[in-house]
Amino acid sequence: MTSFEELVYRYEARIFNFLANRCAMPHARDLTQEALNTAFNLARRLGIRVDNPVEKALAIKTMIIQSSQKECFLPEQISLLLQHSSEEWKTVTLVGCYTGARLGDCARMKWANVDFEKSH
User: N or C: which end of the chain has fewer CB within 10 A?
Assistant: First the structure.
């Protein structure tokens, strides 16, 4: 590999590592991958490049081990969040803490969706 190709390869690997480690939405990671892959495939078809470094980065993507478990907030962290939240966000935060629901789902909840009679 030339130094430029190696630099591009490392850059691609860093993008995928950054997105994976920051718990980015898989959709954002996939869009980034798709956009870069398209650009490098076009460069290859136009004769600007002979290879696609995104394909090389994808080869190492399988080596990145991701845990499906997420770290939970500590009680002290939740208290700090609640101290600095508006009333509306306090409710959303507490619903998330008590139910384990995702933040977006908590924010979209409506009283019409709550049924205290139904047990499941």
Answer: C
The string of pLDDT tens digits covering residues 4-39 is 667 666 776 676 666 565 545 667 677 777 888 888
Residues 85 and 57 in one domain: no
Domain count, the chain: 2
CA atoms of 93 and 16, how far apart (whole Å)? 30
Look up the pTM and report it.
0.39
Q: Is residue 66 part of a domain?
A: no
What's the pLDDT tens digit per position in 63-76?
Answer: 555 555 667 788 88
